[in-house]
Design goal:
By secondary structure, this protein is α/β, with parallel strands linked by helices. Helices cover 36% and strands 17% of the residues. The protein has an eight-stranded parallel β-barrel, surrounded by five helices. The protein starts with 18 loop residues before the first helix and ends with a helix.
Length: 314
């Protein structure tokens, strides 16, 4: 993995991902994935700290492969898997959020023991598509998460008041929340108020008012909120987060997003997270690209900095 540190939590160097072996197993023994899921050593969703540090890698299934100005940064699967294994090996990392293809590989690599596993559920709203806001549930179903012994699910809820596709997504999200609650499985809902620019791109509104409205809408979906968590962005002005998070009593984690390519942008993101992590409903971080593809290539250092923020906010 050129340009990326590959030492695990014990200081030992991680062996490279053997793509040929993964393909061999997938070709000759596809049932090995279910077998690996069945023998995976599980843990509670929350450990003794009551906090969660989750690394996210569900972007590729939506066709979102870019990091900063690198349009195809996440396109090399062996490289992504190696970065994920390294992140998961670091002290304080609780688990991973990903789609079935990535989690199946991690199961075969033996990387998910004693980790929290979140299955990504709706990936049909492909990045840049005209139907992006009609976000169909094309990933993990509630029955898949239960069958595989995973720990939770995650869904994205983007709401554009001018796009009928948002109503379809709202309704299907509510029914999935019902199904997850019936199975007593947590579901992390990531809401945004969004709109289209004149050239058709979707832009998330991170103003305090918009994030407040998205939190209120997401909190009320379904027939029970008992198993619903929120996955929320930090507002444009981080000082607004205390007021925003007063909108709901649901437990929440902060999302990372694409913070840019420069070390300065990375440091600025850390500072935003630091303050919000002290709020009473905020229980952790779910961060992907900014930790897996940091500007300096040092995945371990980026992950350790993020886990340090969590420890500091405890």
């Amino acid at each position: 993995m050129a340009g990326t540190h590959t030492e695990g939590g014990s200081g030992t160097r991680l062996p490279p991902v053997d793509v040929a072996e993964l393909v061999r197993v997938r070709t000759h023994r596809p049932e090995a994935i279910a077998e690996a899921a069945a023998r995976r050593v599980r843990r509670p969703l929350l450990g003794t700290s009551g906090r969660l540090m989750i690394v996210a890698a569900d972007h590729p299934a939506r066709g979102a492969l870019g990091v900063g100005d690198r349009a195809l940064a996440m396109a090399n699967r062996a490289d992504l898997l190696q970065r994920l294994r390294l992140a998961l090996s670091r002290p304080g990392v609780d688990g991973v959020l990903a789609t079935a293809d990535v989690l199946d590989d991690l199961l075969l690599l033996g990387a998910l023991d004693h980790k929290v596993v979140l299955g990504s559920m709706n990936r049909g709203g492909l990045q840049g598509a005209r139907f992006e806001l009609d976000d169909r549930f094309t990933g993990h179903r509630p029955e898949d998460i239960q069958r595989l012994g995973f720990d939770a699910g995650k869904l994205l809820l983007r709401i554009d008041y001018t796009d009928p596709g948002s109503l379809t997504t709202l309704e299907s999200a509510a029914r999935v929340i019902d199904d997850m609650a019936a199975r007593r499985l947590p579901v992390f809902v990531e809401p945004f108020i969004t709109s289209r620019t004149p050239d058709g791109r979707l832009v998330n509104d991170l103003s305090a008012e918009a994030v407040t409205r998205s939190v209120a809408i997401a909190s009320g979906l379904g027939g029970s909120s008992a198993y619903t968590w929120l996955k929320v962005p930090v507002t444009e002005n981080p000082e607004d987060m205390a007021r925003v998070m007063e909108t709901s009593t649901l437990p929440a984690v902060l999302l990372g997003g694409d913070v840019g390519d420069s070390p300065g942008e990375q440091v600025a993101a850390y500072e935003k997270w630091r303050g919000a992590l002290r709020l009473p409903t905020v229980r952790g971080l779910v961060v992907g690209r900014s930790l897996l593809y940091p500007a300096d290539g040092d995945v371990a250092a980026a992950v350790d900095t993020a886990t340090g923020l969590l420890r500091g906010a405890a």
